[in-house]
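S1.2 Input.
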Amino acid sequence: MTISSLLISALSQGMIYAPMALGVFVAFRILNTPDSIIDWCQSYLTIIFLTCLGGGYYNIMSGIMRGLGDSVSALRYLLVATVINIVLDYVFVARFGMGVPGVAWATGIAQAVSAVLAIRKILNMKNMFVLKMQDLFPGSSYFRTLIRLGLPSGVTQAIFSMSMIVVQSLTNSFGELFIAANVIVMRIDGFVMMPAFSLGTAMTTFSGQNIGAGRMDRVEIGARNGTFAAMGISAVITVLILLFGRGLMGIFTTTQELIDLSYRMMKILAPGYIAMEVIQCLSGIMRGAGDTVTPMWISIVNTVAVRVPLAYGLVALTRTPELPQGNCAMMYMSLLTTWCIGALLTFILYRTGRWKKKANLV
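S1.3 Output.
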């Protein structure tokens, strides 16, 4: 991969993200963002948009490595990025007093390091293949396959992000304390979700490799064992959150009221991580078989038809003279319910076996 190709890709992605960034800034007002934190939000997003290429390149290169059977390197580079992110968070915020922009720069730099490490690894895997310039321009048949497999996943993420923006407007209506608590919970959520996302990716690779080898029997056994193992891991994590949650919240703040609110919200959400493992693992199996459409429709139904209406509905039902905005806990009750419904839908559609037909088309 040459420097020129990286610059061309960076320019093209920058042209996409620039208007997106402008749109997000305008949307702050629509989302009822408090004036006291709107400058922080804009600073954070500006830096994240400027540094987003690192995460994109890491995801592409780690996908190639996992497809070649080297999932260890992808994990190692992710761990390196996580450690760098944590260290830079402390240095930029606690030492240099950079505040929210410092957190954004720490994330961007960590992602860039992981991307560089992954690209270097790919370029050094000459015993498996040699990456040439022409390889960056796939033929029409490969391009159609990539679009057919990748577009549903992209649509899924886009719809999920849009629903989060819609729900964020409701979140912001509860004021700065709840917004701060939500940030803390989502920080913890990011780490707790790692096993789910990692195992889901592993199941995709496992499914694709075994289907390519004609071993559908191993796919079904792996799906069952992998999902049960993932649920067991999440059950342990849930127990740890319930036992030591206050200590985890205390890492991010010393304000007792904020710790108590964050912990109360996290207790509501914690059991849902078991359901999330079912969604990620079984969806990963279907994606590995070439069926990216079924997970897409599950996500659309879950976010558009369940998550958003349920959040607004539960909050509206709990409005009282004492709680004119409603009960903020309903935000997390709606998310927990959405995850459970998503797990049930994913399990039912996996059990139909229709995803197996897609394996013959890839």
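S1.4 Remarks. The CA atoms of residues 212 and 359 lie 9 Å apart.
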